[in-house]
Amino acid sequence: MKPNFIPKTRVKICGIRDLEIAKICKEEGADFIGLNFAPSSPRKIDIANARNIVQFYQNQNDSPKVVLLFYKNSPEDIRTIRNSVPHDYVQWVWDDPEIDSSNRNEILGQNQICSYRVSEPIEDDDLKNIPGEFLILDSYSKGAGGGTGESFNWDFVYRIKRKFLLAGGLNPENVASAIAKVKPFGVDVASGVESSPGQKDAQKVIDFIRNTKSVS
């Protein structure tokens, strides 16, 4: 009889702005990195630095998947960045006022990761119109697309069977307990591995990835 197989929990480090942290993510086995192009975010990266990170990954084996993140970017801005920065996925926020469902795929492409902000108990039926292989369930904060460092009540998502990355208020100290309670497909962190808004802390990134892998 084969032993039960427990799939590893995926790790996404979001809001990377420099090559040093990108290298650490690869070395430690992160599955995804997020490059944030939201105009009001303290984690906003420019195209030149984003391309440097992607170029480094393209020359390495087993590199993390690259996710471009947008919130309140114009459709023209999204198209320009998508065409300028090689990537694997495009991340967007479900209630982004700049993205119209009528032309969403044309703006974002086919490989989408939607961030859905949770403020009350939800079930799979609430997510049925969201495209993509998996999505992100994040905390709700008015006017912010994510990265606030605030968590939500994890009991709100315990009925969800669809694959999702858990986000919102995660850090190296609580990620193991979050995985044990929620059992998500993956975890997504931004501010929880920073020394100040937008400034990643190398040791916190390492600890977050290792603590995730230790329980999955």
UniProtKB/TrEMBL annotation:
Question: Catalysed reaction(s)?
Answer: N-(5-phospho-beta-D-ribosyl)anthranilate = 1-(2-carboxyphenylamino)-1-deoxy-D-ribulose 5-phosphate
Q: Which keywords describe this protein according to UniProt?
A: Amino-acid biosynthesis, Aromatic amino acid biosynthesis, Isomerase, Tryptophan biosynthesis
One GO molecular function term of this record is:
phosphoribosylanthranilate isomerase activity
CDD domains attached to this UniProt entry? PRAI
Whether Membrane counts among this entry's keywords is no
> Which GO biological process categories is it annotated with?
L-tryptophan biosynthetic process
* Name of the coding gene: trpF
Q: Which Pfam families match?
A: PRAI
What name is this protein filed under? N-(5'-phosphoribosyl)anthranilate isomerase
Q: What is the lineage of its organism?
A: Bacteria, Pseudomonadati, Spirochaetota, Spirochaetia, Leptospirales
Q: Has UniProt tagged this entry with the keyword Amino-acid biosynthesis?
A: yes
- The organism's place on the tree of life at top rank: Bacteria
What the entry lists under HAMAP family is as follows:
PRAI (MF_00135)
Q: What is its EC number?
A: 5.3.1.24
- Which pathway is this protein engaged in? Amino-acid biosynthesis; L-tryptophan biosynthesis; L-tryptophan from chorismate: step 3/5
Q: Which residues form the N-(5'phosphoribosyl) anthranilate isomerase (PRAI) domain?
A: 11-210
As given in the record, the signal peptide range reads none
Q: Which family does it belong to?
A: Belongs to the TrpF family.
